Amino acid sequence: MILALSFYLFAAVLVVSSVMVISARNPVHSVLFLILGFFNAAGLMVLLGAEFIAFILVIVYVGAVAVLFLFVVMMLDVDFTSLRKGAMQYLPLGAVIGGVLLFELITIFGAWTFAPTIQDNIVNEIAIGDSVTNAEALGRLIYTDYIVAFQLAGLILLVAMMGAIVLTLRKRAGVRSQKVAEQFARKPSDAMEIKKVTSGTAL
User: Fold this and answer.
1) What is the domain extent for residue 34?
2) Is residue 100 part of a domain?
3) Is 44 within the bounds of a domain?
4) CB under 8 Å to 11, separation ≥6 — which residues?
5) Per-residue confidence in pLDDT tens, the chain, 203 aa
6) Which CATH number belongs to the domain containing residue 74 in this structure?
7) pTM of the full predicted structure?
8) How many domains does the chain have?
């Protein structure tokens, strides 16, 4: 009973926060509702027994991604009112695309069938060795069966990061920048000068 109530509580808050992310007028409030949604999704993962995924949601998505979104939104002086002007002209096209996606989802779930042994699988849980933790089981799966996809995903993220750096790297005149080669080639004689000071004389 407690698990069922917890599930409905987390699910309800997650749905409400998801709706508020796209309906809130203030972008800062949208990011805060996004963080709330991540926390509730992590709660659902804990109920499902996927503690590792719940920790990843809290540490990576809430601690890094969502907070980064929040700082970017708060630091950039973006006039969101002017951006919303003219958005109503795209409403018919958006409604058509949304209707097509809704029809596809209804078709998929309408054709969904459960296996005859679904009730037995629910009653008799799959036995996993006590010595294998959730993170270890996930690591074995990623680094064996899906090692190629995992490495390709890392390579794509690396290329995206390098592309973002290249796009933002601009040389401007009059801006002092660090020159590592010149710093390493610099000798003590270039920066220091030894003078012999006679005793009793002022500098």
Assistant:
1) 7-78
2) no
3) yes
4) 40, 44
5) 788 888 889 899 999 999 998 888 777 788 888 888 888 998 888 888 788 888 888 888 888 888 777 777 777 666 666 666 777 787 888 889 889 988 888 887 777 777 777 667 666 655 555 577 777 888 888 888 899 999 999 999 999 989 888 887 777 777 777 788 888 888 888 878 887 877 777 65
6) 1.20.120.1200
7) 0.54
8) 2
